[in-house]
């Protein structure tokens, strides 16, 4: 499954945590189904109190000012390999969570148990 196939409208990010190896996002969709999104190869994260905020949509960009700024710190990385993943809330036209990462991610549907 690709991120742009996941219906995040009216869903929310329950929590997220990052380490040197990965970023894990626990997302609950509008039907209360929980999903685990795991990003590998993450360069940067910007969060504006995204936990439990109602989401409207996800935007995936090849070019973004935050990506440009991030890559200034990682001059040995090829910018063509990275994308900007923006999670938007329903109450703002600005991203609540922005991730600069490759397309090396996985999405897992979690059991209700």
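Sequence proposed for the structure above (113 residues):
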């Amino acid at each position: 499954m690709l991120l742009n196939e996941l219906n995040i409208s009216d869903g929310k990010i329950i929590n997220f945590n990052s380490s040197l190896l990965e970023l894990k996002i626990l997302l609950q969709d509008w039907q209360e189904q929980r999903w685990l999104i795991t990003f590998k190869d993450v360069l940067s994260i910007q969060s504006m109190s995204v936990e439990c905020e109602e989401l409207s949509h996800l935007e995936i960009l090849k070019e973004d000012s935050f990506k440009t700024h991030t890559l200034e710190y990682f001059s040995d990385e090829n910018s063509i390999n990275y994308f900007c993943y923006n999670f938007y809330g329903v109450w703002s036209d600005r991203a609540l969570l922005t991730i600069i990462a490759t397309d090396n991610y996985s999405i897992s549907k979690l059991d209700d148990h």
